[in-house]
Amino acid sequence: MTLPKTTAELRALDAAHHLHPFSDMKSLNAEGSRIVVKAEGVWLTDSDGNRILDGMSGLWCVNVGYGREEIVEAVAAQLRELPYYNTFFKTTHRPAIELSAKLAELTPPQFNKVFFTGSGSESNDTVIKLVRRYFQIKEKPEKKIIISRRNAYHGSTVAAGSLGGMAPMHGQSAVIPDILHIAQPYFWGEARQGETPEEFGLRTARALEAAIDAMGEDRIAAFIAEPVQGAGGVIIPPASYWPEIARICRERDILFVSDEVICGFGRTGSWFGCETFGTEPDILVMAKGITSGYMPLGGVMVADRVAEVLHEGGDFNHGYTYSGHPAACAAALANLAIMQREDLVGRVANDVGPYLQARWNALAEHPLVGEAPMLGLVGALELTPDKLGRTKFPDVGKVGTLARDFSFKNNLVMRAVRDRLIIAPPLVISHEECDELIARVRKTLDDTFAELKRWGWVR
Ligand code: PXG
């Protein structure tokens, strides 16, 4: 086979042989994928030589930015010394040991033990087994229902997809038993007319209490939630929401699971989102930013009170070939060393976070934007034909996709969820790059507005 060289040749091969995740392959193949060939800092380069500002940190993961030789070197060194060994059958290795200890140091004080996985989805499958095992050992096997939220994303395996609240996913693969979905704290989309964010936050949190009462506390094992829903559209809850959830979890005999796959490792201006919101989870789920995406790795931290029970339960019949993969752990250690040395968490909290937030929040003045919230370095723009009435565009998702496509043309990667644009740039983005990002977002909004005028969808 001759090696493909041109973009057109590469696209043809991709279309012939590659099935992409979450994609309509018929229309994608007709259009052709963008081929990314290299990256440095916050900048991607595609096969046509375009330089693109990566406003999504890859897929919410490249927290320390691209091109970090230190991580590359650590992985290469580890591959030379011990490319693989498992952590089953009474064995372990240095990278897994060192990373476990590092995570115990970085996570809130109740966490001292980690179970390694290869991804966020595998982590959440692990969570389901862990919480059910916990209550089996406590001789309460009937406590097995896990409460989650509509429009939550917890991964894409059958079990993690069931835990998530994405209706289009449930439509293609039935939800596994004993998962229950309650309301999400999405003020813009779901508050009643006249309701304040404070009132809405309390009402939505109390849906958890109501669900526990309706099913019976003796049947509920856990509540799982993302501190800020990421893939659901960057839903930042009203200030009243998390304290009320924390109260309910304290009062009831259930485990609280914080899915920190996106919010973990600095995204919200703390090491973990639960610290930003002051909640005290029993289980903490990690992936993505743990290695900044340089290698696939996930993990589940269990609080001491949970670990102590599991400790008494004999074998936990669960594990993956790549649980604690040495090269992935080496990548994580190098990544976390960079984060600590460069104080990236402090930078998000006190420097670049506030800098970008001020400019992002000001986008709410654009005629197309209903709200422009941002926390740490994760933000959203709700597109609407009518700010005051919180009205939606017809054919939900069409305007979001239109804007997302303009953004791509303007060499800025943003995601669209329904008609909400979302952004989560690498934590190393400079002030100058923030200005560039905002300029490209403004151009994207103007391009979208002009097109919608042509359609007669806005005045
Ligand atoms: N939990 C959360 C909160 C996530 O955001 C997962 C679990 C699953 O992780 P893995 O590593 O199995 O993918 C995620 C992943 C998107 C998008 O389009 C978001 C994710 C993955 C793919 C696409 O926003 N989040």
Summarize this entry quickly:
GO terms for molecular function: transaminase activity. Keywords: Aminotransferase, Pyridoxal phosphate, Transferase. Helix 5 (94-106) packs parallel to helix 14 (326-341) and helix 17 crosses helix 18.
Report on the architecture of this protein.
Helices cover 42% and strands 15% of the residues. It has 459 residues and is of the alpha/beta class. The chain folds into two domains: 34-64 and 344-455, Aspartate Aminotransferase, domain 1; 69-341, 3-Layer(aba) Sandwich (Aspartate Aminotransferase, domain 2), CATH 3.40.640. The strands form three sheets. It has a seven-stranded mixed β-sheet with strand order 4-10-9-8-7-5-6, sandwiched between helices. Strand 7, helix 11 and strand 8 form a beta-alpha-beta unit. The structure holds 3-[O-phosphonopyridoxyl]--amino-benzoic acid. The site of 3-[O-phosphonopyridoxyl]--amino-benzoic acid has 16 residues, from helix 6. Its EC number is 2.6.1.-. It comes from Ancylobacter polymorphus. This is Putrescine aminotransferase.
